[in-house]
Amino acid sequence: MRLLPSALAPLSAAIALGAAAGCATSPAPLPARSTAPAAVVWQYDVVSNRGGLDGLTIEARFAPMADDSLGVDDDAAPFVHDAAYASGAQWVSVERHGASWKVPCSTGCRVRYRYALREAATRLNDPETAIASSDAVSAPPATWLLRPDAAGGLFRFHVAIDAPWRFATPMVPVPGQPAGTFEAPTETLEDSSFAVFGAFDAETIHNGATRAEVVMAPGLAPLSRDDVIRWIRTAVDSIATYYQRPFVDRVLVVVLPGQPGNPTRGVTLGDTGPGVLVRAARGLTAAATRDDWIVTHELLHASQPSLGRGHAWLSEGMATYVEPIVRARAGLVTPERFWGDLVEGLPQGLPEAGDQGLERTHTWGRTYWGGALFCFAADLAIRERTGNARSFDDALRGVVAGGADVEAHWSIEQFLDVGDRSTGTRALHDLYRTLALAPGTVDLPGTWQRLGVKVEGGRVSFDDRAPLAAMRRSITERGPER
Ligand SMILES: [Zn+2]
């Protein structure tokens, strides 16, 4: 599920963007659940023992399958115990072979097993497979649900959990089924979003039609509950102001204490529902959360469709460029800081010798800052072509206007088409050709001059007589005049 090597971790952890590894071309759209109700082909009853902290006991029923093989992610496999299938009234034990279990299932089958959830979280300590903090464990269903290869239809699970323990997921409960029942297309299980078991506090933040369910694990002091909610709410409200509309129907935000010595980190997952996991730096104070950019960065990921792993430069570039704009417009970042950071950061995104364009050069600098350079160049091009009446903001607003978020899989063409249509220009397509399909560059010193941005001795100053000074101001102040 990991998109980028861990060497890229400094600028927040990777977002899992695609359903399949190496999907550099247009991923197939997921089945439309509303128009064609699909059959449930995998069904799970999950009993969480002491809130899941003493493991999960799972019984599953599978529709007939051609290949008699069940599996989980490689890393998650050692924590499956006592697997057995039903044969008449008997249970027959099954041995593990690597990360798979052979089960006769040509006419359908029942399987049961135990999953050592807390042990998996302690050993793996990875947000994308399993991670624990005190009495809360976060692990996507892909970690604890044994399954055959996806073959259409839905998987459905029911979690039985006793108070005071709780379960949280961004998945939508199935109407007409007992509480704690969720389902999704089988294709989405492999990259499924976060699920949390155990003892945690939770609160829902509303902004218009946007709903963020915040799960707070124990151990976040000195942050109080109110501090955490204010932190997440500030990011949600700032992004809603940026979009001028609701930007995601629902998103699960899981806040866990981080490892000693590590900065605040975040990961976003999309399949089965938008989910953001944040590991707050140890000792993080309420005052310090005002300077945090991670939550805004990750929620921006959650707000935009997945473009596939091959186009991470655009997803990361969008979040890298737009996050400080969102925060500047909310008064959390000064224009001097915004422009100073761009002048310092963007040169890391320029092509070096041997570069093959953003689509084919997947280094850290080209992914984060090269992608940001593309978005910055697009912002300026759209503003220049429309007399500052339209901007990159409008392109992103157009993308979310139809209700797409990180759960949706879009091709790059679809993103460029919708973005350009929203601004009435061809700026995204034009720059895609020159910067992404070829190692085109941007004259940054000339751009700073035209915008009237000067950095001398680390001090940022502005020249309001510069030709693009009005454009520079409108980037951080508010949306362009309509
Ligand atoms: Zn990111």
The parts where pLDDT drops under 50 for at least 5 residues are 1-34
State the assembly state of the protein chains.
Answer: single chain
Number of strands: 21
Distance between the termini: 42 Å
Largest sheet: 7 strands, mixed
Number of helices: 13
Main attributes of the structure:
alpha+beta; binds zinc ion; 13 helices; Neutral Protease, domain 2; 21 strands; Immunoglobulin-like; five-stranded mixed beta sheet; single chain; elongated; disordered N terminus; 482 residues; 3 domains
Task: Describe the protein's architecture and organization.
This protein is of the alpha+beta class. 30% of the residues lie in helices and 22% in strands. It has 3 domains: 1-30 and 304-482, no CATH class; 40-197, Sandwich (Immunoglobulin-like); 200-302, Neutral Protease, domain 2 (Orthogonal Bundle), CATH 1.10.390.10. The protein has helices at 117-124, 141-144, 225-243, 286-289, 294-303, 312-329, 335-345, 364-385, 392-401, 412-423, 427-436, 444-451, 469-477; strands spanning 40-48, 56-62, 69-71, 80-87, 90-93, 96-97, 100-102, 109-115, 131-133, 136-138, 154-160, 166-168, 181-185, 196-198, 201-207, 210-216, 250-257, 265-269, 275-280, 453-456, 459-462. It has a 7-stranded mixed sheet, with no helix packed on it. Strands 15-16-17-19-18 form a 5-stranded mixed sheet, covered by helices on one side. Helix 3 packs across helix 6 and helix 9 packs across helix 10 (412-423). The longest helix is centred in the C-terminal third of the chain and has 22 residues, at 364-385. Bound molecules: zinc ion.
